[in-house]
């Protein structure tokens, strides 16, 4: 009967469970952090340190969080936590965008469904409904964010609808008013006829849209050269509804144009034989094909020769025009004209296009108002008065109802050459999803030039760090080419444009005292004061309210969010923060959104960007790279992932992904994250078990440790350097690959595998076991702290398992200081080669196991034949310990033919011989000495360990 040594073996022991059960664990830890006041303690601990302020880009308070929100907030939290543990004071104040059309649209829906007109509702009451709607969703989103493990000042977040915020937004607008850069102008802006308001570029998304196309003849009435007398200039457009607004035709001065004569026409063609037309030479063949006719070229001329040519409007002679189109249409050179499509001529409607407007202003053209806010033509528009330029069909798709009447009217005058359809990318409202139009409207603008705002912004971009760096070029090109900033909206919910306009001069009142009174009222009562107060309250006793009009437009919400740096980073409500922010972090679409508006606002008022660095991440797609949509059934809701797997799995997905590009997520990807998490967790669990009962008295200095332990310490120095580089660069996916490999390959498959025998079976006082436990203690401390910003719940659980405490937390710690003297490149190179030799041995034994000649590697005592160089490398090492065999014989010689070899490890061969002797009942090694020791069935080492207790 063999002896039972089970109770003498130092098996790992820990209360840290194998299964994370994160959906249950995480809420418990959140409650604990709340109880111990973790956020307040972090602030107290970090007081006086260098500040790192990641300023939160405000999400919109109008619905549950989606996976993009989770990505964004987790990444922010990871960076804030890591900067805190690097030794900085990294405070995070979350915030929300509350004003604007999405919320207003929701409240309007309620009125529309009940058959009421929102405009008949008292504006203050309506605004209060919007305010309550936003407050409701802020409460919901706050809890969803907190559940993701996001740490921040949740008891005191910022919102754009507080009195403090609105007063600062008003004051910031006042700075643009007072320096003269805020002005009122009429120019075409992107307009939603559905929502009846102007939209900013950041509120626009592009989708495919089918448009009616028309080729229209403009008869020449004054020819600049004889060749075009009696001809018609042909334009092509995808917006027939803009034809009533036409006032000119643009050409390319350097292009070649041809005067052609229609020789023949196919049945159904609108071209008349003998018609003389002017088109671009490069496009004449395509125009003929589109018009279903054949051309004969009569003349060729340069575009510049057309200067001075005048046409009349193609609808001038329509029987119901009644003089509505009785004006001349000049030909003007336009640098924006291309020969990609069309005819080489562009019809110019100055009220319906940016290029059109600039060309019209340059030449003093009249800029007519043709389309009302609701998308219907004004009553004065000849032929088409009251008709809609855009509507939604029964199939849900938008179309232009007036396109057919325009075609009919052009046909009636004989000036329609052809018509067709084209599918192209077209601007849509990201809220209503309806196509937009360019519409000339009176709006408030901030000039990009009058105070040098464009130049300041471009310099600020050059001075800012962008991660990734290509973000600099993206936002730079946008600023370089952008028009003046349209900051007015014709809506009700938002901060009003607090401007009075002099009735006599039409100029805005620029008075600091007036602005100060408005700001003070907003601070005390909120922006509703603009609607509830008599103008005399703000104008003061020295001005007659009858002399001024009070502006009723509201501010673009992007101006609101562009001011957050002013009322959060500089505001009195968060005195611990500092300006400028260390980092702004949002999705890549914010180059034209929040990054952009914040840049312009800050450069206009402070002369520099409100941030030192900008980080952008991509969008989240499904596993096949498709955009998520309910119709496709591929939406991954963060709430569902957290409820079934835990927030740490989502956090692991974020940091394990290259978020500089678009990210993918789905069941299989999440399953992979769960597998990675399990390996990381098992590493922590093994370390905790191995350190059962470990005390400081057991520790050994590095100088007294075996080479294997010193190699592990060296690996920590490498990881520490990578870790700090990753934190500085805000890029973690490469680091997580290294951390995972360290745990799975370096530790579990190598170091733990080798040291398992010493850990379990050596005497408690043995140098080898003490060294192993000392290193494991260091590794556990480093891993737990390194993982804390990323797997914030699991790291906390592991920390408390190692350091039980009522109020302790790993998040109150700093990252470990890894001594530089642990770095040993020569030792690392040596052990890389040793691991290669070990790989040959384990490869040979794997065959023996597969063939069932042995059950475990301890049943083998292989012969290892190595080159002289490798033999010298292995001198002094216990290769049986390293290869986990009961014995090993190392021979200096040439690899033997027929023995196991690996091509990638030359100079090594293995003969996998069985071990001889008896099996030790304690360590399971097969040794000749078993049976000769003092304790029955044990080897000498185990016998000594039993006696030592």
Automatic annotation (TrEMBL):
GO terms for biological process: isoleucyl-tRNA aminoacylation. Its EC number is 6.1.1.5. Keywords: Aminoacyl-tRNA synthetase, ATP-binding, Cytoplasm, Ligase, Metal-binding, Nucleotide-binding, Protein biosynthesis, Zinc. A motif ('KMSKS' region) lies at residues 627-631. Binds 1 zinc ion per subunit. One of its GO terms (molecular function) is tRNA binding. NCBIfam families: ileS. Belongs to the class-I aminoacyl-tRNA synthetase family. IleS type 1 subfamily. This is Isoleucine--tRNA ligase. It comes from Paramagnetospirillum caucaseum. The gene is ileS.
């Amino acid at each position: 009967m063999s002896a039972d040594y089970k109770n003498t073996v130092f098996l790992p022991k820990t209360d840290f469970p194998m299964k994370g059960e994160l959906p249950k664990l995480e809420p418990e830890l959140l409650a604990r952090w709340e109880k111990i006041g973790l956020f307040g303690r972090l602030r107290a601990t970090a007081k006086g340190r260098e500040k790192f302020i990641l300023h939160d880009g405000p999400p919109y308070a109008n619905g549950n969080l989606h996976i993009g929100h989770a990505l964004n907030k987790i990444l922010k939290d990871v960076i804030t936590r890591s900067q805190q543990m690097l030794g900085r004071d990294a405070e995070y104040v979350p915030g929300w965008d509350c004003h604007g059309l999405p919320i207003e649209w929701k409240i309007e829906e309620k009125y529309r469904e009940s058959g009421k007109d929102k405009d008949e509702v008292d504006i203050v009451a309506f605004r209060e409904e919007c305010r309550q709607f936003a407050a409701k969703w802020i409460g919901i989103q706050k809890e969803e964010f907190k559940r993701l493990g996001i740490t921040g000042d949740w008891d005191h977040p910022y919102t754009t609808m507080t009195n403090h915020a609105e007063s600062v937004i008003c004051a910031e607008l006042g700075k643009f008013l007072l320096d003269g850069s805020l002005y009122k102008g009429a120019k075409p802006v992107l307009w939603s006829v559905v929502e009846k308001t102007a939209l900013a570029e950041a509120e626009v998304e592009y989708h495919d849209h089918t448009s009616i196309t028309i080729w229209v003849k403009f008869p020449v009435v004054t020819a600049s050269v004889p060749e075009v007398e009696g001809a018609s200039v042909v334009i092509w457009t995808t917006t027939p509804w803009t034809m009533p607004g036409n006032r000119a035709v643009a050409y390319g001065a350097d292009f070649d144009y041809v005067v052609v004569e229609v020789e023949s026409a196919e049945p159904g063609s609108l071209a008349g034989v003998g018609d003389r037309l002017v088109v671009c030479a490069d496009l004449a063949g395509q125009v003929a094909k589109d018009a279903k006719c054949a051309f004969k070229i009569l003349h060729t001329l340069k575009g510049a020769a057309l200067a001075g040519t005048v046409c009349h409007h193609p609808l001038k002679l329509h029987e119901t025009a009644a003089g509505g189109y009785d004006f001349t249409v000049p030909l003007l050179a336009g640098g924006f004209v291309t020969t990609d499509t069309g005819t080489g001529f562009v019809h110019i409607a100055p009220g319906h296009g940016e290029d059109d407007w600039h060309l019209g202003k340059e030449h003093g053209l009249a800029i007519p108002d043709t389309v009302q806010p609701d998308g219907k033509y004004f009553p004065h528009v000849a032929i088409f008065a009251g008709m809609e330029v855009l509507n939604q069909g029964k199939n849900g798709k938008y179309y232009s109802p007036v396109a057919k009447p325009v075609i009919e009217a052009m046909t009636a005058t004989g000036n329609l050459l052809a018509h067709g359809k084209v599918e192209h990318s077209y601007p849509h409202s990201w809220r209503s999803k309806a196509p937009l139009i360019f519409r000339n409207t009176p709006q408030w603008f901030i000039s990009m030039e009058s105070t040098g705002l464009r130049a300041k912004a471009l310099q600020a971009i050059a001075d800012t760090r962008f991660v990734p760096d290509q973000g600099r070029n993206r936002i730079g090109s946008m600023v370089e080419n952008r028009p003046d900033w349209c900051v007015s909206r014709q809506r009700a919910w938002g901060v009003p444009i607090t401007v009075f306009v002099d009735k006599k001069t039409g100029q805005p009142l620029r008075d600091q005292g007036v602005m100060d009174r408005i700001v003070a009222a907003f601070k005390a009562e909120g922006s509703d004061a603009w609607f509830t107060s008599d103008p005399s309250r703000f104008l003061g006793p020295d001005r007659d309210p009858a002399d001024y009009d009070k502006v009723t437009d509201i501010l673009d919400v992007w101006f609101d969010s562009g001011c957050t740096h002013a009322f959060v980073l500089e505001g009195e409500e968060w005195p611990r923060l500092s300006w400028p922010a260390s980092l702004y972090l949002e999705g890549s679409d914010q180059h034209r959104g929040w990054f952009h508006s914040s840049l312009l606002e800050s450069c206009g008022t402070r002369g520099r960007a409100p941030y030192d660095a900008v980080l952008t991440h991509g969008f989240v797609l499904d596993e096949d790279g498709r955009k998520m949509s309910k119709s496709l059934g591929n939406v991954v809701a963060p709430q569902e992932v957290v409820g079934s797997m835990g927030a740490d799995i989502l956090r692991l997905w974020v940091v394990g992904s290259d978020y500089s590009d678009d990210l993918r997520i789905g069941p299989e990807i999440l399953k992979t994250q769960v597998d990675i998490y399990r390996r990381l967790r098992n590493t922590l669990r093994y370390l905790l078990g191995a350190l059962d009962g470990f005390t400081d008295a057991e520790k050994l200095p590095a100088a007294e440790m075996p080479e294997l332990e010193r190699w592990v310490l060296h690996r920590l120095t490498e990881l520490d350097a990578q870790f700090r580089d990753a934190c500085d660069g805000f890029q973690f996916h490469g680091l997580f690959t290294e951390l995972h490999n360290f745990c799975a390959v370096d530790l579990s498959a190598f170091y733990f595998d080798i040291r398992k025998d010493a850990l379990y079976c050596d005497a408690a006082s043995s140098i080898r076991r003490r060294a192993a436990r000392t290193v494991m203690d260091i590794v556990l401390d480093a891993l737990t702290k390194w993982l804390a910003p990323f797997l914030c719940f699991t790291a906390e659980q592991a920390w408390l398992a190692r350091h039980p405490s009522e109020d302790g937390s790993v998040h109150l710690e700093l990252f470990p200081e890894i001594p530089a003297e642990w770095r040993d490149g020569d030792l690392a190179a040596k052990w890389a080669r040793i691991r290669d030799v070990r790989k040959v041995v384990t490869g040979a034994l794997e065959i023996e196991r597969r063939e069932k000649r042995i059950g475990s590697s301890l049943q083998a005592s292989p012969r290892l034949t190595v080159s002289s160089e490798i033999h010298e490398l292995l001198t002094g090492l216990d290769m049986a310990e390293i290869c986990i065999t009961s014995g090993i014989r190392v021979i200096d010689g040439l690899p033997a033919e027929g023995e196991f070899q690996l091509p990638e490890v030359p100079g090594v061969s293995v003969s996998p011989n069985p071990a001889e002797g008896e099996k030790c009942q304690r360590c399971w090694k097969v040794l000749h000495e078993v049976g000769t020791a003092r304790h029955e069935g044990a080897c000498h080492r185990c016998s000594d360990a039993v006696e030592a207790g």
